[in-house]
From TrEMBL, chains A, B:
Protein name, UniProt field: Sec-dependent nitrous-oxide reductase
EC number: 1.7.2.4
Transmembrane segments: none
Places the protein is found: Cell envelope
Keyword annotations: Copper, Metal-binding, Oxidoreductase, Signal
Principal EC category: oxidoreductase
Keyword Iron-sulfur tagged: no
UniProt GO molecular function: nitrous-oxide reductase activity
Organism for this UniProt entry: Maribacter aquimaris
Amino acid sequence: MRKIKYSILSLLGLVMVFTSCNDSGKKSRGALASNNAEKVYVAPGEQDEFYAFMSGGYSGNLTVYGLPSGRMFKEIPVFSQFATNGYGYSEETKPMLNTSFGFVPWDDSHHPDISQTNGELDGRWIFINGNNTPRIARIDLKTFETAEIIEVPNSAGNHSSSFITENTEYVVAGTRFSVPVPQRDMPINEYKGNFKGALSFISVDPEDGEMDIKFQILMPGFNYDLSHPGRGKSHGWFFFTTYNTEEANSLLEVNASQNDKDFIAAINWKKIEEYVNNGGGTKIPANYAHNIYSDEDHTAVSTMKKEVLTVDPTKVPGAVYFLPTPKSPHGCDVDPTGSYIIGNGKLSADLTVHSFDKMLAAIEGKKFDGEAYGIPILKFEDVLAGTVKSGGLGPLHTEFDGEGNAYTTFFISSEVVMWKLGTWEVVDRKPTYYSVGHLMIPGGNSRKPFGKYVVAMNKITKDRYLPTGPELEHSAQLYDISGDKMELIYDFPTHGEPHYAAGIPAELIAPKSQKIYKLAENKHPRATLGVNDARVERDGNEVHVYMAMIRSHFTPDNIEGIKVGDKVYFHITNHEQDFDVPHGFAMIGANNSELLIMPGQTKTLVWEPKQVGVWPFYCTDFCSALHQEMQGYVRVSPTNSNVDLTWSLGE
Amino acid sequence: MRKIKYSILSLLGLVMVFTSCNDSGKKSRGALASNNAEKVYVAPGEQDEFYAFMSGGYSGNLTVYGLPSGRMFKEIPVFSQFATNGYGYSEETKPMLNTSFGFVPWDDSHHPDISQTNGELDGRWIFINGNNTPRIARIDLKTFETAEIIEVPNSAGNHSSSFITENTEYVVAGTRFSVPVPQRDMPINEYKGNFKGALSFISVDPEDGEMDIKFQILMPGFNYDLSHPGRGKSHGWFFFTTYNTEEANSLLEVNASQNDKDFIAAINWKKIEEYVNNGGGTKIPANYAHNIYSDEDHTAVSTMKKEVLTVDPTKVPGAVYFLPTPKSPHGCDVDPTGSYIIGNGKLSADLTVHSFDKMLAAIEGKKFDGEAYGIPILKFEDVLAGTVKSGGLGPLHTEFDGEGNAYTTFFISSEVVMWKLGTWEVVDRKPTYYSVGHLMIPGGNSRKPFGKYVVAMNKITKDRYLPTGPELEHSAQLYDISGDKMELIYDFPTHGEPHYAAGIPAELIAPKSQKIYKLAENKHPRATLGVNDARVERDGNEVHVYMAMIRSHFTPDNIEGIKVGDKVYFHITNHEQDFDVPHGFAMIGANNSELLIMPGQTKTLVWEPKQVGVWPFYCTDFCSALHQEMQGYVRVSPTNSNVDLTWSLGE
C-alpha cells in the first residue's frame, strides 16, 4: 500500500473552531416565514405526508417522526430496555436482549433501512444495527414492534450496517473495529496483519423476514465504516468504506490518518453466494444469539447458534476489489441508477465519485495498483468518474432526490451541498445549525427517491432551542427541495443521536398498520382468555396469577396466600378489542418496570414480595372514567404462614 | 356518613361510547389554518415562549416541551432507568433508584409542580411524584437533572402529590390506596376502619431545596386522589379530594361509586405545623430511602431513614374538615385568588365550587353534618359557592387564566369548558380529540397564571397522527386563549402519559440554564482531572480505570492485564469545557448501558469481562471529524494469566 504523509493538524484545528455563526432565521417573521409555517404545519385532524424512522443512536432504539411536522409519534424499543412499556423487563421480552455476553440492556443503534422489492421501498420491515454488541434487528412495520434480533459473531463496532440489497435478499453487517477472529488472548500492538474485519451477509426470508447469517467475509483488519448496496446495473455488488488501513491500534486520531487514500471495498456478493452455495467457505465454531418475537404467543425466544460460515475473500477470484478513495472516507453512497459510488472523504474538501462501469472495465482490464492482503487494488484514475469540488470541508454522507441531484453533508463547514450527478457541479449550498452528520431524503437509498424534503441530522444543538442544562437533544433541520434550491423551513429536536434515517410516504405503511391483537388468536401459553379462567396457582414458591383486565377491572382484584420469598408471576391478558385501549399494570415495590398491555395481548411481570402487608396494584393507563378504581390488593404473609391461597372473581 | 344509592350503569355505558366524532379540522387549509400555522410556528433561529414540563406517566420521567411549537426538548430521567444516558445504570446514579424495596427501576410519574415564591413561579426546582412505589423527586432547573428523591413510607399509590405551598414551604404526598399503617398481615376484606390514608407534608429547604418529611397525617382509609394548596387568603390550607369513602376493597368501579358525595379534605397545615413544632405527634418506626445527587462530586448517595412523625388529625382540633363533594371528585383545584376550591366530580355533569370564606364561617359557626372517624363534616350548603352547570360529562381538572376564567376538562364528553369564576356561567366549550385528562395553563397553579395558551392532555389518540401499530403516544392539543374564546391551533404527541404539566415563561428559566460543569470544581473521588493522572489500578479482582476523554481521544486507549472474572470500573472524566460537547463511552458486551458524560463530569461504568480476547470501546456521541477514531481496546486474558497490567498514555 502506498503511504503519503499527510498533516492533519490544520484540519484538526478546524474541527475545534466550528462557529455558532450568523443565523439568518433570527429576523422577525415576514412573508417568507409565514410561507414556511404553512409548509410544515399539519393542522389538527390532518396527517403528515411521510414517515421518518430515525435511529436513536445512543438511545438504542428507533424513533418514528412525521414529515413535514417533525413530530415524534413513537419510540420503538429495539436494543435498550424501555421502562415505558416494559420492553426488556417483561418475561416475554427479556429474551430479545440476550446475547453471547448475557443480557445486554442497551446498544447504540445506527442505520435504519426499509425493506425493498425491485429496488423500491415496500414498507414491510425496517432493519437497524446495534453498533456496540454487534446485532441486527428487524422491526415489523405492521405492528411497529421489534420482531427479531440476531447477534453478529466475529465482529466489533457493527457500524457499516444494516443496509439491504434491492430485493431484501440480504442485510449486511460490517465490523468497524477489527478484532482477532476467533477471539484470543494476544497483545493489542500485534493487531497489524492479525486482526480481521468480518463483513456479514444475513439472508432475509422473503415471506416472514426471518434472518440467518449466510456467510461472513473475513477481510483485512481495517475499520469498515459505512456501506451501501449496488442497485440496478450494480445489483449484486455491495460497497464498504474503510479507514485505518494503517491498522493502528492506539492514538487513531493521528495514526489512522496517515494514508492519503483508504479504500472502498467492492464486494460481488452474488459471486460469493454462488461460491458458498457450491460448498465454498469454512464453517467455524461461534456463539451468537438469535432472538425472535412472535405476535402469536406475544413471546420472544432466544436461541444460541453455534457455528458460522466464513469466506476467505482471496479464495474467491473476482469477488472483492479495493477502490482507492482519499482522506479516510466515511459515507459510501450509491446513486439511484446504481452507476456511481460516492466516497465522502471526511478529512477532505472534495468528494470522490467512482464509476461502476469504469470499475467493471478496470477489473476486466486488470488495471491493478498492487494488492492489500491478496485483494486487488484498482487504479484510482481508472475507476474515478469525477470529483465534486465542493468548497466545503468534512463531507460525510450523500443522498439523492431522483431528479439527478445529490446532497452531501459537510460536518466541519456545517452545510448541505447540492450538486449534479454527471457534471459534478455544485448548484446550491445551505448552512446547517450545527455540524451536520447524516441526512435523509425519503427513499434516498433506493431506485426511487421521493425528493420533496431533505432532513439534516445535526450533531451540535447549542442555541437552537430553549436550553435544558448541559445535556441537549440533537437537532434536525428540514429543507424543502421541491424547487431549484434548498430552502430551510424548520428545526426540530430528535431523541438520542440519529445516525441516518429512513423515510417513506405514509401511504405505503399507514393503511396496513395493525390496530389490535385478536384475543381469539392469542396463543400465549399462560393467557387468560375468559374471565372464568382467571385463577392463582402455586408451584412451590412460584405463584402464577392468571389475570384478565378490561375497563375498569382486574380479575382477580384481591389475592391472599402470597408469602415473603415467593416469586409471583402476573400473567395478564388485556381483553379489550378496541383500538387504542391499552391497560397498564404496576405493583408497588416491584424491582421491575410496569407492563403496558395492548388489546388482546398477554404480558408477564415478576414480583418478589419482600415485606409482609397488604400491597396494592393498579392500572397505569387512564382507560375510562373509572380508571382510578381499577386497582386491587395482594396480601403478603410471612414465609411460614398458613393463609390459604384465595382470590376474588368479582362476586 | 350518608349514603345514597346511585346507579352508575348509565355513566359506565357512556364511558364506553366515546365517539371518534366529527373533526372540524379535516377541511382543507384555508386562511384560518394559515393563521394558526403562524401562531405555532417557531422559525429556525427563534425560540419558544414557554417551557412545558409534562409528566411522563408510565415513562416514569419528566419531559420538557416548548410552547407554542409542541417540540420535545428533553426527557429528564427521574424514576426510571434511562439507557440513553446511563441514568440508573452508572454507579453514580444507581443510588437514585434505591428504595426500601431495593432497587426499583421504574415508576409512574404524575404531577409536576414548579417551586414558588409568594405564590408566583420562581423556576428554581420542579417536583414530581412517583405514584407506584411512593416517592417525590426534585429536579434542578439549572441543570435539568434529578437532584433528589425521597421515598414516602406508610403510603401507596402516591397520587394526590406533588403540589407545593405558595412559598415552597412544603411539597405534599398523599396516599391514593389506603393500607394498614404500619403494614401488617391482615385480611384484605377487613380494610374498612382499619386501613389508613397518609397525607405527608415534606419540607423543602429554602436554600438548597433539600426535602425532609416533616409530618404525616394519618387520615381515614379513603382514597386521596388529588390536591392543591390554598393561596393568598387560603395560604396555610391544603385541599385533597377523596373517593372510595365507602372503603371498598374489591370491584371498586361499582363499590366505590355508591356514595352520592365523597369529600374534599381541608387541611390547616399551619395549625398542624404549630402542633408538631410544639412537640405534638408520634414518631413511629419507618424505613424509607432518601437519595441525593450532588453536582459537586457527580454522585448520588442513598440514606435509609428510620422513623417518621405521624399526626392523628383528631388530636389537633380545628386542623382538618371534610367538605362534602358530589360524585367521586377527582381534580381539586384552587383559583388564583385562593377564594374558591373546585371539586370535579368525575361521575357528574356539574362542578362543585366551594367558598373558602364560607368554609371559615361554617367552621366558626360549627355548621357540621356529622363526622367521619372523628373529623367534622361541614354542611354542603354552607360551604358551597356555586355550581357550574357545564352541560359536559366527567369533569376532571380545572385551570385558570388569571383573567377570571376557569377551564375544565371533561373526559367523557371530550371537551374543555371555559367558565367564569363568580358567575359560574359557561362562556365557551371546545372539543378535544379525544377524552381529555389534565390540562395546563402556564402558571395555572399559582397566583399569577400566564393565560395565553391552554394545553389539553388527551388519553385517547386513535387517528390524530400517522398510525404506529397498536401502541400510540398520547396526544396533546394546544388552544389559543388570548381572545374571548378558545381556539384549537395544534395537535402534538406526548411521550408516556402526561398527568398534569407545569408551564412557565422561558425567560424565568432559560437565562439561568447551566452549560457545563467546571472541571476545576469536580470533586468526584475518582475523577481524572489531568491526563497525567490517567492510570489503571488493580485491587484484588477489582480494576479501576481512571480515564480522561477529550476530542478525539481516550487516555488510556489500550489496556492489558485484565482477566476474566475481574470487575472493571471505568471512571471516566470528560475534559471538555465547551457547551454541548458530551462524549459517550460504550464497551462491547457490557451488561449495562452506555455512559453519556457532560463536559467536566465524571461517570463510572462497571464491566465484568466474560470472554478472553481483545475487546473495543468507543465514544458514542459524534464529537468531531475524528470521532470515528475515538476508540480503544482492552485485552482480556484468562483468569490465571500473568499478563502485566499496562496501559497506553498516548506515547
